[in-house]
Amino acid sequence: MTELIYPMATLVIWTFGVLFAMGFGRVRAIKGREVSIKSFVLMEGKAQLSQRLQQMDRNFSNLLEIPVLFYLWCLVVMVLPLQANELLLLAWVYVAMRCLHSVIHTTYNNVNHRFSVFVLSCLLLLVMWVRLLFLI
Questions:
Q1: pTM for this entry
Q2: For 14-25, what is each residue's pLDDT tens digit?
Q3: CATH number for position 87
């Protein structure tokens, strides 16, 4: 089921997009003298960053936490001789939910909306793992 490389790559590219946006925002903040470059030596200057940059920083961290289980799930499915189109659909829905979570987190940041999407994406990932176990 090599098609899973596409949702995986999409989430990887999305993660790099958040990383680059965060990096460019930090450079702008340094150039605009909103924060000192020295604040990033031990990362103690995060509190001095704008709310939007703090949100991007936290979202980037989020994209490196639970999605690791998604990447692992994809690799396991790809290694096993499974041909279930529903798994590919589940992967795309998961990626869409993670992207939606990022958009909410890095824009208007309504905690109720963000949390709802986060919980649903985590539950979906759990369902994906359980479904995989039943297919083996």
A1: 0.92
A2: 999 999 999 999
A3: 1.20.120.550
